[in-house]
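**User:** Hello, beginner here. Are you able to go through the protein record under this note? It all follows right here:
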Amino acid sequence: MSHITWEAPFCGEGNNCFRLGTDADGKAYIAVAGQEELAITDSHDALRTLILDIKAGKADHLL
């Protein structure tokens, strides 16, 4: 696995904290803080689309 540069954790009120990361190969990662070894990885574009869709409310039905 490439070296991942992790951002500071993002924590919602009363929720788990998540971290976003990137590596030198252009991959993006998302993981629960403290469980970075279990990160989900994809391209920057795919992660960007996921985040924008969540912000737009497209995942609200999952809550």
Summary: The chain has one helix and five strands. Residues 44-55 form the longest helix (12 residues).
